[in-house]
Amino acid sequence: MDLRIDKNMQLARQGIDQDLDVLVNDKSWCVRREVAKQGRNQDLDMLVNDENYYVRREVAKQGRDKDLDILINDEDVDVRSAVAMQCRNQDLDMLVNDENYYVRRVVAIQGRDQDLDILVKDESGDVRCEVATHGRDQDLDVLVNDKDWEVRREVAKHGRNKDLDVLVNDENWAVRREVAVQGRDKDLDILVNDKDWAVRREVAVQGRDQDLDILVNDKVWDVRYEAAKQGRDQDLDILVNDKVWDVRYEVAKQGRDQDLDILVNDEDWVVRCEVARQGRDKDLDILVNDNDSGVRHTVARYGREKDLDILVNDEDVIVLAGLILHRRSKDIEKIKVRIKNGEFNNIPSKDEKMTLDNIKNIIKEFKNNEKEKDDNFER
Questions:
Q1: How large is the angle between the packed helices 3-14 and 29-37, nearest 10 degrees?
Q2: To the nearest 10°, the Cα dihedral for 28, 33, 38, 42?
Q3: From residue 264, how far is each of 221, 243, 304 by CA, in Å?
C-alpha cells in the first residue's frame, strides 16, 4: 500500500477533528472509508454519496436513518446488504423483494417471520438455505423436499424425526451424512451399509459397537481410520496390521503396549514417529538409531539424556534442531564446534539451510543469556 495512504488511514483512525476535516476529501477511498468509520455527522453527510461503494457501505453500517433512506436504493449489492443488516423494518419490507439473491439472503438472516414466509419459496437455493437455518416448523415442512441438497442438509441439522425419516434415504450423500450425525439408532442401522464411504465414516464416529463390528473391515481406509480412533481393543487387534499407514498411525496413537511392540518396526516413518511420541523407553532405545531423520528428530524432542548424548553427533540438521531445543550447554558447545569445523557447509536443500540458521540463532541467544547471567552475577 502507498505510504501516504497508510499514513492517512492511521491519522483517520485517531479520530482527531482537524485531521478528519481534511481527510474526508482524501483522494483514496481507503482513507475516506476510515473517516466514515469515525461516525462524525458532517463526514457522513458527504460520504453517503461517495463514488466508492466501500465508503458508502461503511456509511450504511453507521446506521443513521437519513443515510439508510438514501442507500436502500443504492446500485451496489453490498451497500444494500449493509442496509438490510441494520434491520430497519421499512428497509426489510423493501429488500425482501430485492433483485439480487445476496441481499434477500441477508434479509433472511434477520429472521423476521413475514420475510421468511416469502423467502421460503425464493428462487435462490442460498436464500432458502438461510431460511432453513431458522428452523421454523412451517418452513422445514416445505424445505425437506427442496430440490437443492444444501437446503435439505440444513433441514436435517434440526433433527426433526419426521424429516430424518425422509432424508435417511436422500439421493445426496452429504444429506445422508448429516442424518448420521444426528445419531438416531434406526438411521445408523441403515447407513452403516451406505454406498458412500463418507456416510459410513460418520456412522463410525457415532461409536456404536454393532456398527464398528462391521466398519472395522470396511474397504475404504478412511472408515477404518475412524474405527481405530474409537479405541476398541477388538478393532485395534485387527487394524494394527492394516495395509494403510494412516490407519496404523492412529492405532499407535492409542498407545496400547501390544501395538507399539509391533509398530516400533513399522515400514512407515510416520508411524514410527508416533511410536516415539508415546515415550516408552524400549521403543526410544530402538528408534534413536532409526534410519529416518524425522524419527530421530522426534526422539530428540522427547529429550532423554542418553538419547541426546547420541544424537548430538547426528549428521542431519533436522535432528539437531530437535535436540538443541533442550538447550543443554554441552550440546550447544558441541554443535557450535561442528559448525565452526565446516561439517554443514555442503547442506544441499534450502529448508535445511534455514534449519541450520535457526540452530545458529538459538546458539547465539543461549550465549547472550549466559553472558547476561555472568554480568548480573558480577554486579
A1: 10
A2: 80
A3: 21, 16, 17
Give the CA distances from residue 282 to residues 12, 260, 287, 307, in Å, rounded to whole numbers and listed in that order: 64, 10, 9, 12
Integer CA distances (angstroms), 54 to 5, 7, 31, 119, 355, in order: 16, 19, 11, 27, 44
By the 8 A CB rule, do 130 and 146 touch?
no
Query: Is the pLDDT at 375 greater than 60, yes or no?
Result: no
Average pLDDT estimate for 49-65: 98
Question: Rounded to a whole number, what is the distance in angstroms from the first to the last CA of the chain?
Answer: 49
Which tens digits make up the pLDDT trace of 121-158?
999 999 999 999 999 999 999 999 999 999 999 999 99
Sign of torsion over alpha carbons 201, 202, 204, 209: negative
Could you give the percent of the chain with pLDDT greater than 70? 97
Amino acid at 47: L
- The pLDDT score that the predictor gives to residue 349 is 86
